[in-house]
Design goal:
Largest sheet of chain A: 3 strands, antiparallel
Strand order of the largest sheet of chain B: 3-2-1-11-12-13-14
Shape of chain B: globular
Distance between the termini of chain B: 54 Å
Largest sheet of chain B: 7 strands, mixed
Number of helices of chain B: 6
Oligomer: heterodimer
Largest interface: A-B, 41 and 41 residues
Strand content of chain B: 15-25%
Radius of gyration of chain A: 19 Å
Number of domains of chain A: 1
Mean pLDDT of chain B: 89
CATH topology of chain B: Purple Acid Phosphatase, chain A, domain 2
Number of strands of chain A: 3
Radius of gyration of chain B: 21 Å
Helix content of chain B: 10-25%
Distance between the termini of chain A: 61 Å
Number of strands of chain B: 14
Low-confidence stretches of chain A: 10-27
CATH architecture of chain B: 4-Layer Sandwich
CATH superfamily of chain B: Metallo-dependent phosphatases
CATH class of chain B: Alpha Beta
Strand order of the largest sheet of chain A: 1-2-3
Amino acid sequence: MKRRNRVTRLIGWLSVFAVVTPGFAGQPRVPQASGEDARVFKIFTARVQEYVKLQKNVEASLPALKPTNDAARIAEHEHALARKIVQARSGAGQGDIFTDEVTRQFRRIIRGEFQGPNALQARRTIRPDNPSKAVVRLHVNDVYPENIPLTTTPPTLLSKLPELPKELAYRIVGRDLTLKDTKAGLIVDLIPNAIP
Amino acid sequence: MPAKRRAAFFSLVALAALGLSLYAPELPSPLSALELTLPLKANSVRFAVIGDMGTGEKPQYELAGKMVEYRQKFPFEFVITVGDNIYDGDAPADYESKFERPYKLLLDAGVKFYATLGNHDKPNQRFYKPFNMNGQQYYTHKNGNVRFFALDTNYMNPQQLAWLEKELQNAGSDWAICYFHHALYSSASFHGSATELRGVLEPLFVKYGVQVVFAGHDHVYERVKPQKGIQYFTEGASGSLRAGNLKKSALTAVGYDRDRSFMLVEISGDELYFQTISRTGQTVDSGVIQRVTATSGVSSGPAEQVGPGAGYE
């Protein structure tokens, strides 16, 4: 009886832990979605997790990057990680993570954001430093364009897309939505002309 | 000497003197010439605020020199940066020419820098030890009775908002000060107010009693009239400058866009004193903000002691 109580208590604590730590162990949290949306988000999330697993495996083969006074060390790590990921994903292409159905759903959400009631604010958020005028043609496995400033990803849009683990970020470049590796600085996948 | 030649000679001398005064390198001001409006109270928390500084150009170095001069009079212990720490590249040479060399004297003196990321910063700056970010895009640090929240407004996702709310809940009775890159209120023409970010951040600031916010992005200095009890500062002119970009609006309490600037801040008990100084050592703004505590109920509007004719109101 005592043992059963202990087990019940343990399960209870684990449930609380799981609830209060979204994103724990690289598990992205999915915004509340139902039916078809939930199914598509699940596909996306599974592919994201696959990528993160690969990234972590690749990074484990490099000397760990810890905070350092040596700026060269930071750049070396980033470049080495990018090189190795590109090697490991040499066959990767557009649509591997943003599959057709994921892309359709993301486009719908983004359209809602940029053509709906929040449109003015969202456009304002991405406008000031958006490099839409720069001729930047992006590809999977490219290094994220280095000489253009970051565009703020609209926070309200972020609240509607599946949350990403910290290894990845949604970044808008021109009208494209990219999935960016935050440590290797690589474009992992993209949806061209996602911003209407 | 005939009168005509004498006049020509004196004209030449006068012109030469004018030329020298315009082009001679500026010598450090004698300590006594530096105007300090901060009270230098015992055991106060003292720091500087800079933003949009990492150009590696002469004005950045000159402003850094002014910070060194002021530190002799106002020994601040650390500097917070509101982003755009290193423009145009992140090669080791960039870190050297845009951060390590301009601030060498401060770094050598043990002054700590706490950085946030701007839209021109590479995210991996978070691993650069002198920025004290400890590998995190957003983080918190406590100095005396002040809890600082360094945010990444390039990417304000739900995780960061949840983290901020949790950390603010735990701030206790400390001053809560947030700093980040994009100004939630700005009268500058180039960027202006980041209204969408304001929509997600300001409710948390109000709910948890954040009273002071520092930002940059627009390359000007501006103190905005208190909004919902919060004092917003923009200090985005510590390296880059958009001269004449500030358009006085109903928001503006004081603005300055004629030259580079940095801020000095002193917090003692429930009072926060600030002084904004230009590259030439002119005080362009100063004042004191009284903290509103649950029991005090004092308004947070700063009692102004604005420098004569420096900025505009």
